[in-house]
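Re: magnesium ion structure - here you go.
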Amino acid sequence: MKVIAVGRNYIDHANELKNPVPTEPVIFLKPDTALLKENKDFYYPDFSQDIHYEVEVVLRICKEGKHIAEKFADKYYDRIGLGIDFTARDIQQKHKEKGLPWELAKAFDHSAAISNLLPKEGFANAQALNFHLDVNKQRVQTGATKDMIFSFAKILTFVSKYITLRNGDLIYTGTPAGVGPIQIGDHLEGYLENQKLIDFRIK
Ligand code: MG
């Protein structure tokens, strides 16, 4: 399986990092070794001094798809959850300045925390979900999937033009504003429609 992630999919987050608002989705990948499951603690790696949290809504792909038509895209995912796209902002910044790929900043071990994934039928409208992240009981990020620049359907259509989607792949659909650094000892709690799905600590 693979993890496909969308960068800059909320205008307020693109603005906070002083990035232009994209006209087509910004896509990057994480390997399966990036996954951090079952609310296990995240161990701060020694190669970065500026790891940021980014809470995101995550889709699970349920069948193989290539050149998916937008009107059928919703049939290609069956579960929805939350993830943290951990990002080594210091490494990313250096790579951005040199025009280099972001992999080392985004794809390192355990950089893709993933919650339990819930059946999408449990939600009336996947494109109208509210989610938020609390760090040490302080609300740091609040998002709504209606505010995405590129909808779930548009993301699947765009990605599948280039990369075949397969059963079990995960799509991290972008983070809203409010990203920030984590510290050892922090407690992260993420909520999707007020259901707590993420609950772990930084060690
Ligand atoms: Mg992200």
